[in-house]
Amino acid sequence: MRPNGRHTAGASRLSALRVWAVGLVLLSAVAINPTPARAAPSQAAAATTHVYLLRGVLNIFSLGLDTIGARLQAQGIPVTVANFVSWSSLADEAATAYKAGRLKTIILVGHSSGATALPDMIAKLNQLGVPVKLAIGLDSVFKTKLSTGAERYINIYIGDGPGEPVRAAAGLRGKLDNVDVRGSGVGHISIDKNEAIQRRVIAEIDAAIMRSRAPALPVAERGAPGQARAAAATAPARN
């Protein structure tokens, strides 16, 4: 008996739908857990860490920071997401918690004008005697000079866009990395929302918290030998 043509076509469509459904499930799993398996910070280290995420102007163009903050909170890491104009009051808040012993590791992340405000926030914290473990800027929009440092400062910017490299002042203590991601497909408005960029930011934060068990570098001192470095990184592919 010859197979019915409609039955064969229906079976083929059903098979194709099953393959599509399986593929959709796999893609969903990747989207939910985009970062590769890695050692997570210990609960104690995470609990004594605070990540401050500074949005840019109008508070509507840096919503990728909210996503980063939610993922960090899912790891048990306390976060504050605020507009960049709050940088000074946030520095006071962080300094109070640090001096009271409630906070050990301070990490700053900013996008656009939020990235431009990071050196000012670091400088104020240093003046208050508080070290900054890590700062990550995403496409700072104005020429920025880092006069006092975090233990590590990573400036991810789009070299052929509005972003600018961060310059190191004489005597800067700490490590400065300028990472140009031109040609990666990200723009100024989308850099904070790009999956690869978000994964890198979170991975750098996790690594910094893991390092926080080691003694922190002393707060910047005038006249200390400069240790600023610049490094280019392979541009991340946009997902």
Helix content: 25-40%
Read across the widest sheet, the strand sequence of neighbours is 2-1-3-4-6-8
Terminal CA distance:
50 Å
Q: Examine the coordinates and then state which fold CATH places here, giving the name of the CATH topology of the largest domain.
A: Rossmann fold
CATH hierarchy class name of the largest domain: Alpha Beta
Enumerate how many helices there are, as a single number: 7
Based on CA atoms alone, the radius of gyration comes out at: 22 Å
H and E order: HHEHEHEHHEEEEEH
Could you list the spans in which at least 5 consecutive residues all have pLDDT below 50?
6-37, 220-239
Strand content: 15-25%
Oligomer: single chain
Q: What is the makeup of the main sheet?
A: 6 strands, parallel
Which structural class matches the secondary elements? alpha/beta
Quote the average pLDDT. Answer: 79
InterPro entries: AB_hydrolase_fold, UCP_Testerase
Region (Disordered): 220-239
Can you walk me through this structure?
The chain is of the alpha/beta class. It has two domains: 1-33; 41-211, Alpha/Beta hydrolase fold, catalytic domain (Rossmann fold, 3-Layer(aba) Sandwich). The chain is built from seven helices and eight strands. It has helices at 5-32, 43-47, 64-74, 87-99, 113-116, 118-127, 195-211, and strands at residues 49-55, 79-83, 105-111, 134-138, 144-146, 152-157, 166-168, 175-180. The strands form two sheets. A six-stranded parallel sheet has the order 2-1-3-4-6-8, sandwiched between helices. Strands 5-7 form a two-stranded parallel ribbon. α3 (64-74) links the parallel β1 and β2. α4 runs parallel beside α6. The longest helix has 28 residues, at 5-32. The chain is globular, with a radius of gyration of 22 Å. It starts with a helix and ends in a 28-residue tail after the last helix. Mean pLDDT is 79; it is low at 6-37 and 220-239. Residues 220-239 are annotated as: Disordered. InterPro entries: AB_hydrolase_fold, UCP_Testerase.
